[in-house]
Structures are given as C-alpha cells and as structure tokens.
Design goal:
Two copies of one chain form a homodimer.
Chain A (H helix, E strand, L loop, with lengths): L2 H5 L6 H4 L18 H12 L8 H9 L3 H13 L2
C-alpha cells in the first residue's frame, strides 16, 4: 500500500489508536510498527465480520467503509511508524 | 499478570511471534510492547472462538489451552518487551 495515502485516511483511527499509532486506551492495540501483512489480515477480518469478541464491533463498523486499497494504504502507513 | 511467569509459558508462541515478540513472518503480529489489556482481549476472543478470519484458526488452537491466568501472564510479559 501507499503510506502517504494511508495517512490521509486515518481521521477516524486516531481517536482510539492515537496520532502516532500508540493507542490512547490500553484495551486498543498500538499500531505503530505493526506488520503490514498482519494489519491487512486483521482489517479484512473485521470488514468480513469474521473477527468478533472484545472491541471488534467498533472495528467492524470502521472497517466496513474501507476499500481494499484503503486497507492496503492504512496498513502501509501504520507499519511505517516506529 | 506476572511477566516472569508469562515468559515461562511462551514455548509455543516463539515459533511465530519470535523470541523477542517480533514476528518471524509479517502475517503474524509483533507482540513486543503491545498493550496488556488488548492482548488479554485478543487472546480471550481466540479462546472463545469469536475471533476468526486470517490466521485465527492457528491462534484459536493455541489459546484453547490457556487459562485466564496464563493469558494474564502472557499479556504482561509481551507488553513488558520493548
């Protein structure tokens, strides 16, 4: 994915995952430096509603609006953060 | 949880998540420095089989054998790594 394009799509993410990908609340995961392929896998599992439990309901709603390109770009962006 | 006790329970985790919590393969998440409460939430979602999609099947099998105490200790251990 394209990290720059990904950064432009993080408006809804920062509230929980923080401006630098370090979560505001410990029940949410830090995303900074997470593996790109894992982030894509997780976002797709939320989008397909296969991933449930914990705070999954919130993420399913957020992921529902994402295209595969958005997912690839967001994954590239967050994995690029240290 | 107890990070020391958690470390002693990582025998099955290191193959995919790495000895230092940095995943061997990018489709698996890094766990080092991840938020403790999130790790507990994720492990419980695997254990309850609510979390599916991606590599969830592998994690469900691993989480099935974990007690709540194991989960708390493993979460404490991995969140303590930098």
């Amino acid at each position: 994915g394209d990290a720059e394009a990904g950064k432009a799509k993080t408006a809804t993410c920062v509230a929980c995952h923080g401006a630098e990908g370090i979560a505001a609340v410990p029940v949410y995961p830090n995303l900074a430096g997470q593996n790109e392929a894992y982030l894509v896998s997780a976002l797709k599992a939320y989008k397909s509603k296969e991933r449930n439990g914990g705070m999954a309901a919130v993420m399913q709603a957020n992921a529902a609006a994402l295209s595969d390109e958005d997912i690839a770009d967001l994954a590239a962006y967050y994995s690029s953060l240290k």
